[in-house]
Amino acid sequence: MFQELVHAKAFQNYLEKVDFPQKPQHLYDPIRYILSLSGKRIRPLLVLMGAELFDDSAIKQALPASAAIEFFHNFSLIHDDIMDVAPLRRGKPTVHQKWNDNVAILSGDALLIKAYQELSKCPTDKISALLRLFNATSLEVCEGQQYDMDFEERAQVSEIAYIDMIRLKTSVLLGCALQMGAIVAGADERSQALLYDFGVNLGIAFQLQDDILDVYGNPQSFGKQVGGDILSNKKTILFVKLQELVSPADQEELTYLLRQTIDTEPNKVEKMMDLYAKYDIRTLAIYQKEKFTTIAYEKLIEIQVETDKKQALFSLADALMHRVR
Amino acid sequence: MFQELVHAKAFQNYLEKVDFPQKPQHLYDPIRYILSLSGKRIRPLLVLMGAELFDDSAIKQALPASAAIEFFHNFSLIHDDIMDVAPLRRGKPTVHQKWNDNVAILSGDALLIKAYQELSKCPTDKISALLRLFNATSLEVCEGQQYDMDFEERAQVSEIAYIDMIRLKTSVLLGCALQMGAIVAGADERSQALLYDFGVNLGIAFQLQDDILDVYGNPQSFGKQVGGDILSNKKTILFVKLQELVSPADQEELTYLLRQTIDTEPNKVEKMMDLYAKYDIRTLAIYQKEKFTTIAYEKLIEIQVETDKKQALFSLADALMHRVR
User: GO molecular function: any one (chains A, B) (predicted)?
Assistant: First the structure.
């Protein structure tokens, strides 16, 4: 993991040199604020690792692309938090909460444009390819956010539609990050596509795991309230699987539970878990998670570079998927 | 003006071929809607005229850039209308009014990304320069919108600050449109800069004229309620000029008027116009408008191409500034 710290440091140094003007304050202060909340910086790391996989010496050239991805990600957080009326982000007030909706809309817009400004600093002969990939991915992320909001209004969501939503909303950006690194490093198109697929499938597997851990995770290590998704009737892989399999008799119980809160039904989480157990939903969800994880690893294996060079990405994937090898 | 109709038709044909997916509906329907409200399409026309000035044969190649500018403009309308809580746009319900704020935020975001998707379709060797100009301009437009909102909260705004705000919010995009056309047509940097300055100065002059016509325009030909800016206490060139010149004695009257509505003071417009007359504000504003118009024309004159070729831009400027020559 030593190399990851080197990348993180390089990214941080680069970020500190990006120019955000002092004025107008209400436009740029929120940008400095959201970027200071930092988070895991997993996406810029993927850009740098994607470059490193094909050419060690291309890492520095990949820094603007890594900033573009991080800026895009933070732009989407600012706007998603308005739409989701979220009060907190990484334990701190969200931008629209700290300032107001208008400030959050406009500073988000400016941060999206700053992402493209980073793209314009990439090696000139690579800008066209990077721009096309980045645009297609950014639009998909918007589509994913829209489907996510649409699904909240719908009673029924199929498993296929759900997985496609998480692919668009969160996974394609991981694939895009890796592929942008590969593009900067001059990788051939076949290798680019394999690395992209590795990222997308790993991203889906990671999201499915998140759904599973919300119900079956160890509260200490998971760091969130267990059962939070059940209490808020969130569509998850467990929920959509149950919906597909539930018998007419149990549908009545499910419909009842969905109408309850922790106040009207203190055992809502336990009762929903009973339904999950009856239909073996946990096993089915783990099967899906494993399926996407396996596809991801297969794609990485298929890339034609020395196995040693892939070690860092395998380790990162293992760490994300809590795997021990 | 015949050539302008040819450009308008070429742009419309191009626009109809741009792909906006059917799904998710709430993401792309609002985009189709705002683009269908059309408006004057002045910005894409400027791109095509900017290209034509240097190379007739580059007009077709400039179509994606013209779409990028029009998409950006419409993105900014969608988001500005949320921030301004505007119910109507071009006489029709605004996007946030017809759908809701979330739909307007996200479809606006998608339209901004679609603008960059058009940029990626520009001639490959020009993309880098176009991207840098477009990014810098887009950020400036955001800064202008932020200053505009900031100024609403402030009692005092200087003339310099006001003119800088309208330069950022509306004028730089006109300069950018013209320069993008020039870039596609392969114009040298000096000519690009002159054409940009022509657009920016013309844009400022046009906005100042709009401020003047709101008070002194012929209600029939102006098409808006005369005095609307006065009734809403809008910062205009007339207002900031008066603020700078008003005597302590008249300041009392001004402060009184700013606290009145049409209900508490039916003669608010007339009384404010009396103050304007006392300080000869109209003349001073017209002087400023003429100053920027003159700079604009000088910049256009300075460009090293045959005078014949500039005729279309002179005519367009004359039409915008209601000039007769």
Answer: prenyltransferase activity
- DSSP 8-state class, residue B93: E
Q: Chain A partners of B140 at a C-beta cutoff of 8 Å? A: none
Could A132 and B120 be called an inter-chain contact, meaning their C-beta atoms sit closer than 8 Å?
A: yes
SS3 B186: coil
| Residue of A22, A79, A146 to mutate, testing the B interface (most B Cβ within 10 Å of its Cβ) | A146
pLDDT digits (tens, 9 = 90+) for B59-68: 999 999 999 9
Supply the CATH classification number for the domain B188-324. Answer: 1.10.600.10
The ranges assigned to domains in chain B are 1-186, 188-324
DSSP letters spanning B200-269: HHHHHHHHHHHHHHHHHS-HHHH-S-TTHHHHTT---HHHHHHHHH--HHHHHHHHHHHT--TTT-TTHH
Q: Across the interface, do A127 and B132 touch by the CB < 8 Å criterion?
A: no
A24 and B120 within 8 Å at the Cβ level: the answer is no
Tell me if A321 sits within 8 A of A296, measured CB to CB.
no
CB-nearest to A128 from B82, B101, B120 is: B120
| DSSP β-bridge partners for residue A223 | none
Q: Residues B266, B161: contact at Cβ < 8 Å?
A: no
Q: pLDDT at position A222, please?
A: 59
Hey, are the CB atoms on A101 and B106 less than 8 Å from each other? no
The pLDDT tens digits of the residues spanning A249-283 come to 999 999 999 999 999 999 999 999 999 999 999 99
Task: State the CATH architecture for A1-187.
Answer: Orthogonal Bundle (1.10)
Q: Tens digits of per-residue pLDDT, B215-226?
A: 998 877 656 677
Distance of alpha carbon A194 from alpha carbon A307, whole angstroms: 15
- The topology under which CATH files domain A188-325 is Farnesyl Diphosphate Synthase (1.10.600)
Q: Do B106 and A79 touch (CB under 8 A)?
A: yes
Distance CA A240, CA B101 (A): 28
From the CA of A87, how many Å to the nearest CA of chain B?
Answer: 16
d(CA A49, CA A309): 10
Contact A143 B27 (CB under 8 A): yes
Interface of B with A (CB under 8 A): 21, 24, 26-27, 79, 82-83, 101-102, 105-106, 108-110, 112-114, 116-117, 119-120, 124, 127-128, 131-132, 134-136, 138-139, 142-143, 145-147, 149-150
CATH number of B1-186: 1.10.600.10
